[in-house]
Amino acid sequence: MSAKPEIVLFGTGVSSGTAYGQVLKIDSRNRVIFHAEVDDVDAEARRFTEAIEISKRQVEALKSRLEEKVGGEHGVILDMHFLILDDRVFLDEILDSIRRNHANAEWALAQARDRFVEAYKSLEDEYFRERYSDIEHVTERILMNLSGEQPFSLSNLPDGVVLAARDFNPSGFAVMDIGKVRGLITESGGRTTHTAILSRGLRIPAVMGIKNLMSSVSTGDKVMLYGDTGQVVLNPDQKQVESELKKPAGLLPETGRRPRARLRTRDGVAVSLCANIEFEHEVGAAKSCGAEGVGLYRSELLYFRHPDGKPSIEEQLVVYQRLSEEMKPHPISIRTLDAGADKALPSEKPEHCANPNMGLRGIRLSLQSRDTFQAQIEAILRAACSGRIEMTLPMITTMEEIREARLLIAETRRRLASSGIKVPPVPLGVMLEVPAAVLMMESLAAEADFFCVGTNDLIQYLMAVDRGNGEVAYLYQPLHPCVLHYLTFITKTAARIKKPVRICGEISANPFYAILLLGIGFKQLSMNSLSIPLIRRVVGAVSLSDARKIARKALRLKTAKDVYEYLTPAIARAVSTDINLDSWAAEINPGG
Ligand code: PEP
Ligand code: MG
Questions:
Q1: For the segment 121-133, what is each residue's pLDDT rounded down to a tens digit?
Q2: Does the pLDDT of residue 496 top 60, yes or no?
Q3: Is 501 helix (H, G, I), strand (E, B) or coil?
Q4: Mutational test site, ligand 1, from 338, 451, 466, 510, max ligand atoms within 8 Å of CB
């Protein structure tokens, strides 16, 4: 048997570490498609044909709904789906494969889909080239009908797999057996997607934004991936694998002994570093890395773990109490459910909304699902009876949203009081992620006790660039002067109105950004806990007055590239340390 050729692909390394394993391709709904040997191929073929008939009926119904809603001419969009569901070449290829390979219908269908999608993508005519997405949508529907709608089957993974997906829904992390996953590679996405954030939290090496990944890999291929450099090697040479795996792990976090002294810059200004966490078990590591609290607990995973997306008050209470107990004497800031956009709950239909980042997410969704929201508020308030807890509201855009949330909190507090539970004050914070909220900070401050800047989203909304879309990733520019001006506005306003502000976006975890943020006026940074020891060293090796000078000059520049070219050598000079910062500079290069 001839060995498969080695193929090297490149993407963005989003979660550190090197991994080697066997590819398991999963589709956009995190559905795993295995080859399963079937004995009764006729029955399997019938199962497939029935799924086709159901799919046709669904498309028919959808078509008439679409025509009713937006007019007859739009119904024809779905005619393409009918054509595919009737395409004898496509269907016969699948039926033939079921019989020839004694294969399950899902596998045969996925193989045919990959081949047809590739063929369409290679067409010259742009219109026909784009039709590949119709094949994907139709296939998705048939797969759903074959499985009787069971999108999450990640709970039963084989050992040592590297998951390969076009787009991995982060909720998948909640249901899969993490110990079996060595790495993750995806075609879309980048560093600030939630999938990337969770991979880092789970220490799963990951590379995202790999062009043509899905057409290049098959389930069963061997793959070596480098989460630091973004390189992915399919079918690597066995000798190379052995020597790579013998190497000591690269950028290991410097955990060591827990620092006791307060962190201060060289000129004596106190700076506090907190942890962003997604999983309860991370809190121990956060503490030993020197976190002075949990600056952001993303509560979404609690919800993702439930098939109906609704953990009970008691289940939440146990988690919140445990987090706060372990973080004592420091506080934890629980962000209320920020579902929607790239964090769809398992119960949500992905095709629900064409522009989910601007849709029903965060506080908008919570205010529409009052029972769920109130249950979370109650759990947070009850947990606050035994620990230092703050509550943060995601995606606030208007005054009405925070007022409504406050009313619900007050109502819950009264109800608890009437049953004898007296809740201490719980500071309420607003995430600054939407530009409108930033400009309304002073008004919002009438209702908010503190602010927490979510640069991951703020940058996406400021630059009008989907944080998960690789095609426009070049526009996701944290160093753009407009972003720096916004951040400066935030720190100046917070100082004037005397409200605490901390920054929780991924940018705080890079030493260059961290120093720039200090210079802009942030004294509280929250980041993934593994980055805390490094940022601690760097912040302790710079003076605030130097950081301020650098920030002032950066603010006068015109492009992200200008800022980068000025900032990286300036900060490297200002930081008196022997740590080599080159790879961190490379990571933030807007042209790189
Ligand atoms: C942010 O947007 O920066 C943030 C911290 O929230 P998330 O990454 O969970 O959207
Ligand atoms: Mg956000």
A1: 788 776 676 667 6
A2: yes
A3: strand
A4: 338
